[in-house]
Design a protein that fits this description.
This protein is an alpha/beta fold. It is built from 6 helices and 5 strands; from the N terminus they run βαβαβααβαβα.
């Protein structure tokens, strides 16, 4: 019998804010991450600071992709090493920020890298979303999109933590979001 794998959380921040500025969404995610048990392995990557080439759809031509290189390889390795993937994503125009959409598009390539078995490996993981926006209803299309990504790959859906964002620091006054953040990433029964 294989021993259980220790929890390893991959946090992918997706804001396109200027480097060095932590927005509402990342602030809320860091509150949730801080509530995890001591020693929980966490890896953080800022997608907007990485070199992510545009995705080229070859599904109906060559049908396969070479293993990724550069920052895409870094992300693939981090994705496969994690037991839990957490998208840290503000709502941009009712949807995902461009860096997260580009990362997700590359999942289509990783599904077609010979010998990688990406879908099989992903099915053992949990996908969660931490998001902020000015209005909860405007976040729903993005939440649904991420939940469908988890469903497609057979991943466990860890749910969405939403906080009221908007102006810098606004989420810090969202008491219900802060209370939820304290338990959002903790193991469930």
């Amino acid at each position: 019998m294989t021993p259980p794998t220790a929890a390893h959380y991959l946090f992918l921040t997706t804001s396109t804010r200027e480097p060095g500025h932590i927005g509402n969404t990342e602030w809320l995610a860091r509150q949730a991450a801080a509530a995890q048990p001591a020693g929980t392995l966490q890896t953080w990557h800022a997608l907007a600071q990485m070199q992510l080439p545009p995705f080229v759809d070859r599904r109906h031509t060559t049908g396969t992709y070479a293993p990724p290189e550069g920052d895409l390889k870094t992300l693939l390795d981090a994705t496969l090493a994690a037991t839990h993937i957490v998208f840290v994503s503000p709502v941009y125009w009712y949807s995902l920020p461009a860096p997260l959409k580009t990362y997700l598009d590359h999942w289509s390539a990783w599904l077609r890298v010979p010998g990688l078995a990406f879908k099989e490996q992903m099915s053992a993981k949990t996908l969660s979303l931490i998001a902020t926006s000015g209005d909860r209803a405007k976040a729903q299309p993005m939440i649904d999109s991420v939940a469908l990504c988890a469903q497609f790959l057979g991943m466990r859906w860890g749910g969405a933590l939403w906080g009221k964002g908007g102006a810098p620091g606004a989420v810090q006054a969202d008491t219900p979001a802060l209370e939820t953040a304290r338990t959002f990433l903790l193991p469930r029964g």
